[in-house]
Amino acid sequence: MTIPSGSGLQGPVGVVGLGLIGGSLGLDLRARGVEVRALVHRQATAERARERGLADVVESDPAVLAGCRLVVLALPLHRLLDPAPELLAALPAEAAITDVGSVKGPVLERWQPLHPRFVASHPMAGTAQAGVEAGVRDLFVDRPWVATPDAATEPEALAQVQALAEALGSRWLSCGAAEHDQAVALISHLPVLVSGALLLGADRGAVAGVAAGAQALPELVRALASSGFADTTRVGGGNPELGTLMARHNQAAVLAALAHYRQALEALEQQVRSNAWPELQAELERCQQLRPEFL
Amino acid sequence: MTIPSGSGLQGPVGVVGLGLIGGSLGLDLRARGVEVRALVHRQATAERARERGLADVVESDPAVLAGCRLVVLALPLHRLLDPAPELLAALPAEAAITDVGSVKGPVLERWQPLHPRFVASHPMAGTAQAGVEAGVRDLFVDRPWVATPDAATEPEALAQVQALAEALGSRWLSCGAAEHDQAVALISHLPVLVSGALLLGADRGAVAGVAAGAQALPELVRALASSGFADTTRVGGGNPELGTLMARHNQAAVLAALAHYRQALEALEQQVRSNAWPELQAELERCQQLRPEFL
């Protein structure tokens, strides 16, 4: 597939950071005949990125971005929210700039004053991998790519980012930054805490069992945990730095999501405690109906 | 593979119920040259079970169990705990009897007075399927099969059940019924409630968002939910009747597990609320370390 003219993807695309998202972007764009110019932090990363062919040009000097018509900031959230002055100075004034951060309110607030053509966006794709080895082809196919424009967002810059997302096979969505952050709190950040607490709670329960005389309990829970426990704890056992960044930069929405979750769990617990079995079964039937709506 | 003589599996094996577990037992035993005699509730089930070859003989008359040296009660928990008088009358006095229930304390208490050679056991294998179509070959391979004998359990009957489990490729484990029930509360029954509450909490949060002016939130959470949400909610979106039976018949251990879980989740929530980011990251690192211990 080549990029149709008029799609907004003519001219080189800049990618800042060649981790999972940046590296995957580079591979997909190059496969579509788009020139990719990448800026990375460390020389060792640059060398490995060149070996992997993640971009046409890879440098640790921000001047590499000169001439780009579109620049994607594929940086971790904490670096995105605290950009280096050299990076800011090197971003072409005429380029559309977008990011890939998983929280949008703080990013929009920080970046809109920094560049007139900034568009906040979030490709919702990932694997468990990170770093320069992580990038893969077709990561974005059939995944949502959410933009959160507001009244100050330039329509032509927004169209350039949409063209990028659609060229890579993403499903393009647009909503307010606050709505995005509430939604990802509920379906992405909350699950990390819910799932992590299951690991901590199971361990805590097993240790308490030993204190109560069930010496074998820690060994037993580890021997008996099966695919259901594996699935439910997968995101909780994931990248701790990422989980912390999400909670930190989406704090209010995550706390609101936790409050809704606690209410739901306490209702189930109350049904177990009060022998309300038909009511518990009705709630679990509601769960069974809800899940396909989300997937 | 054939059954070695002296393994306790000579003579026909009786299977009561031909759902996922009973049907899979029948297929595996027949493939090993063991005669299987099955008792089912309904005539339509008997016909379909014969077509599928789940047993050598399938009847709805309990007399089919005559002559069996080992009988496996592969019944749902509520039927196991309230057995039909005709079934009790038909169980050969000389046969070893075992069950496959996922809770062991109530089963041992109910069945030990009913049959002198009863052995409480729990093959921890499953799929999302149920009913006469669900049985598959090799369901038990490399899965734990837990027995919970006590001082009254007859050693020779226990050895017969162990021979069955090992012939089917299971990993044989033995522990007290109370320990078993605490362990499965933590790693099997708790995850159902934790995971179901995530579906209910996400829906609750989205509905609250609408009330606060975020009209698109219910649609947005459904559009953005990805593999992490899918994994974390899988067991919560499962069989509601089964989830209710587990909670009902393992009530005390499930409530204790919920209390440990709540403490773990509240600690994480407190860290988010109080901006304790290094502490939150340390807890998520602990989660990352814990998970491989369980899997």
Helix content of chain A: 40-55%
Strand element count of chain A = 9
CATH homologous superfamily heading of the largest domain in chain A: NAD(P)-binding Rossmann-like Domain
Mean pLDDT of chain A: 95
Which class best fits the helix and strand makeup of chain A?
alpha/beta
Tally of individual helices of chain A: 12
The largest inter-chain interface, given as chain pair and residues per side, is: A-B, 100 and 99 residues
Rg for CA atoms of chain A: 22 Å
3D shape of chain A: elongated
* Percentage of β-strand residues of chain A: 5-15%
| CATH-derived topology of the largest domain in chain A | Rossmann fold
By CATH, the architecture of the largest domain in chain A is named 3-Layer(aba) Sandwich
Q: Secondary-structure element sequence of chain A?
A: EHEHEEHHEHEEEHEHHHHHH
Describe the structure in brief.
2 copies of one chain form a homodimer. Chain A has 295 residues and is α/β, with parallel strands linked by helices. Chain A has helices at residues 20-31, 43-52, 77-80, 85-90, 105-111, 155-167, 177-211, 217-224, 227-233, 240-249, 251-273, 277-294; strands at 13-16, 36-39, 57-59, 70-73, 96-99, 118-119, 121-123, 144-147, 171-174.
SSE layout:
The structure is a homodimer of 295-residue chains.
Chain A (H helix, E strand, L loop, with lengths): L12 E4 L3 H12 L4 E4 L3 H10 L4 E3 L10 E4 L3 H4 L4 H6 L5 E4 L5 H7 L6 E2 L1 E3 L20 E4 L7 H13 L3 E4 L2 H35 L5 H8 L2 H7 L6 H10 L1 H23 L3 H18 L1
Parallel strand pairs in A: 1-2, 1-4, 2-3, 4-5, 5-6, 8-9
Antiparallel strand pairs in A: 7-8
Helix pairs in contact in A: 7-11
